[in-house]
TrEMBL record:
<feature type="transmembrane region" description="Helical">
    <location>
        <begin position="228"/>
        <end position="246"/>
    </location>
</feature>
<protein>
    <submittedName>
        <fullName>PAP2 superfamily protein</fullName>
    </submittedName>
</protein>
<keyword id="KW-0472">Membrane</keyword>
<dbReference type="InterPro" id="IPR026841">
    <property type="entry name" value="Aur1/Ipt1"/>
</dbReference>
<dbReference type="Pfam" id="PF14378">
    <property type="entry name" value="PAP2_3"/>
</dbReference>
<feature type="transmembrane region" description="Helical">
    <location>
        <begin position="252"/>
        <end position="271"/>
    </location>
</feature>
<feature type="transmembrane region" description="Helical">
    <location>
        <begin position="144"/>
        <end position="165"/>
    </location>
</feature>
<feature type="transmembrane region" description="Helical">
    <location>
        <begin position="114"/>
        <end position="132"/>
    </location>
</feature>
<keyword id="KW-1133">Transmembrane helix</keyword>
<feature type="transmembrane region" description="Helical">
    <location>
        <begin position="22"/>
        <end position="41"/>
    </location>
</feature>
<dbReference type="InterPro" id="IPR052185">
    <property type="entry name" value="IPC_Synthase-Related"/>
</dbReference>
<feature type="transmembrane region" description="Helical">
    <location>
        <begin position="53"/>
        <end position="71"/>
    </location>
</feature>
<keyword id="KW-0812">Transmembrane</keyword>
<dbReference type="InterPro" id="IPR036938">
    <property type="entry name" value="PAP2/HPO_sf"/>
</dbReference>
<dbReference type="GO" id="GO:0016020">
    <property type="term" value="C:membrane"/>
</dbReference>
<feature type="domain" description="Inositolphosphotransferase Aur1/Ipt1">
    <location>
        <begin position="87"/>
        <end position="263"/>
    </location>
</feature>
<feature type="transmembrane region" description="Helical">
    <location>
        <begin position="198"/>
        <end position="216"/>
    </location>
</feature>
Length: 288
């Protein structure tokens, strides 16, 4: 995560003429880095303290809200504008229309509520690593947190590469005509999106990427029932982001690609690690 802070600090410094809030952004990244370093130092001084260990482990999650909002502040530094028109034209050429409109063609308020509930379940991804850690499954929790953070940070960098305002801000007339209605959960989620989901945080979809890296990271380490439930929620969330007009289908494909790529890279590294350790032991034995 410190590496990401460094990358973003350089981007903010270079593009400061386009970022009126650049001093606050740099200060925020510096404070977030200091927090991580301070907790790492506290862990070294008090290695037996369980509260310190839990807090050090949870530190990336604690700074993630700032990291997300700060990333959204920088989305226009490369292109200087949102490029929804390009993505919309590409999707219409490929699919013959808008996937967002097509997704709600057979919708209903109960279906909207169900899919939005799946989308709402995404917030549980941020609690799962802490739950695993405090229940004594530290290695799994650390691998999962590393995979999730890597996936999300790649998505945040993607916001700059392809800045999208999103289906509702980009096509307000279509959204007014086709955006589905639901009940309590739908209303709550729409309020959350209006308050905390800034324009530009679309491509790749961090919700899709985060949900899929959760499923991929945990599927072999949980019960069959939990795996089926997690798979159903992930599938529902993947459909919901288009159905609820939160993302384009392109965002979904990109988010899924990021999760698959990160999972593949981590799995390859884990598979090679025992071989490297075995070679190291052989070399050490040969030098005795």
């Amino acid at each position: 995560m410190l590496g990401y802070f460094g990358i973003m600090a350089v981007i903010v410094a270079v593009a400061r003429n386009r970022l009126p809030e650049w001093p606050m952004l740099l200060a925020g990244y510096a404070l977030a880095a200091l927090l991580l370093l301070a907790l790492a130092a506290a862990m070294r001084r008090r290695p037996g303290s369980r509260p310190v260990a839990v807090l050090r482990f949870a530190a990336p999650l604690l700074v993630l809200p700032f990291v997300y909002s700060a990333a959204a502040e920088t989305v226009l530094v490369l292109h200087g504008r949102f490029v929804d028109d390009v993505v919309l034209a590409w999707e219409r050429a490929l699919f013959g229309g808008s996937p967002n409109v097509a997704a709600v063609s057979a919708g209903s308020p109960p279906l909207t509520e169900l899919l939005t509930l799946c989308y709402f379940s995404y917030y549980g991804c941020f609690l799962l690593p802490i739950v695993l850690y405090v229940r004594g499954r530290e290695p799994l929790a650390e691998r999962y947190l590393f995979a999730a953070m890597t996936t999300l940070l790649i998505c945040y960098l993607g916001f700059i590469a392809v800045p999208l305002a999103g289906p509702v801000p980009a096509t307000p007339e279509l959204a007014a005509a086709y955006k589905p209605s639901g009940y309590l959960i739908t209303s709550l989620q729409n309020q959350i999106m209006a308050a905390f989901d800034p324009p530009g945080a679309c491509f790749p979809s961090p919700h899709v990427a985060g949900a899929w890296i959760t499923l991929l990271s945990l599927r072999r380490h949980i019960s069959t029932r939990a795996r089926l439930a997690l798979g159903a929620l992930t599938a529902g969330l993947t459909a919901a982001v288009v159905y609820d007009w939160y993302h384009y289908l392109s965002d979904v494909a990109a988010g899924l690609a990021v999760a698959l790529a990160v999972h593949f890279a981590i799995e390859r590294y884990a598979a090679r690690k025992p071989a490297r350790q075995a070679r190291s032991r052989v070399l050490q034995s040969s030098h005795r």
